[in-house]
Amino acid sequence: MTGNRQDVLFLPENQNLVKIGTINTCQYPLFLAPMEDVSDELFRRQCKSYGADVVFTEFVSSEAMIRHVRKTMKKMVIHDEERPIGIQIYGTKPDSMAEAARIATEANPDLIDINFGCPVRKIAMKGGGAGLLQDIPKMISITSAVVNATHLPVTVKTRLGWDDHHKEIVKIAEMLQDVGILAITIHGRTREQMYRGTADWTLIGEVKNNPRMHIPIIGNGDIDSPEKARYAFDTYGVDGIMIGRVSVGRPSVFRDIRHYLDTGILLPPLTLVRQVDELRSLVSGSVELLGERIGILHVRRHMAHCFKGLPDFRELRIHMLRTENVQELNSIFDEIVRKYS
């Protein structure tokens, strides 16, 4: 193992501080999940501005990193205003993952996260992401290789198990801790579930209450409101919560949850004008980085989740999601403000 990690582990006696390596967060930290084609630098900065404590890059392939694929390397560009930030890597070979960890370390993140949770078929069925839940010894071997390849804190994101018959997360969490990870995020579903059904937090709570565990346990799955976040902290005792899909098109969810955790008061939703301004900013930044057509296409997943509940909005939504022209899109935004605010 690289370096002496004993002095940077989670300190349970200080209930107002959660530490992951040298990263200090508040008592109830909120994490932005790494999401492919979503958690790019623009969206990460938005979520940060609304109160996300720790953010992650999109997950990056170890093999593509080793080959220095340009698109992959661009995903690891980070900025100081995003800190603390982690780079999430995935792969199937210990040697490749160790080399990827060394490359990621050179990008100067605050931590490196290993993806053992992605359920997407093209990754899991090739033995990556959640696919490694079918090969626990290999999962541990990869983790050990990554830990020993970097001086940075290493964390893991995974699921309860491969399917309902193999929910082995309590044992897996112990084994991962034993080879040197400094925090674990657990999504409360199996790989077989994908994103269906309801996340089961009971096993996340079992991991947290396991007396052998002394690293932070971060819960993930179905936290889409301030009340659910509060319940998760109070009921399952987790050290942090990771927010994923609900933040798409709604980065202000971090503001809503943070304010409620700190004060017990629910904030009113963002005004329509503020929502539109946020979208304009996201579109503008995306177009600047990727060009007009690709930049707009990249932001569509956010636009698709905005303005829910507006009456008679279907045709305007279709128009908004089909245009590939910035000027036309801004005209649509203007019409939304005129019609609904």
Task: Write a short abstract of this structure.
43% of the residues lie in helices and 13% in strands.
The share of residues in extended strands comes to: 5-15%
Query: Stretches where pLDDT falls below 50 for ≥5 residues?
Result: 1-14
Question: How many distinct domains?
Answer: 2
What CATH architecture label of the largest domain applies? Alpha-Beta Barrel
Give the helix tally: 14
- The CATH class of the largest domain is identified as Alpha Beta
Profile the largest sheet: 9 strands, parallel
Mean pLDDT: 92
CATH topology of the largest domain: TIM Barrel
What is the alpha-carbon Rg in Å?
Answer: 20 Å
CATH homologous group name of the largest domain: Aldolase class I
- N-to-C order of helices and strands: EEEHEEHHEHEHHEHEHEHEHHHHH
- N-to-C CA distance: 57 Å
What does this structure look like?
By secondary structure, the protein is of the alpha/beta class. It has 2 domains: 6-263, TIM Barrel, CATH 3.20.20; 272-340. 43% of the residues lie in helices and 13% in strands. It is built from 14 helices and 11 strands. The chain has helices spanning 41-49, 62-66, 70-74, 94-106, 121-124, 136-149, 169-178, 202-209, 226-236, 253-263, 272-290, 292-303, 314-322, 326-340; strands at 18-20, 23-25, 30-32, 55-56, 60-61, 85-90, 111-116, 154-159, 183-187, 217-220, 240-243. The strands form 2 sheets. Strands 3, 4, 5, 6, 7, 8, 9, 10 and 11 form a 9-stranded parallel β-sheet that branches. A two-stranded antiparallel sheet has the order 1-2. Helix 9 (226-236) packs across helix 10 (253-263) and helix 11 (272-290) runs antiparallel to helix 14 (326-340). The chain is globular, with a radius of gyration of 20 Å.
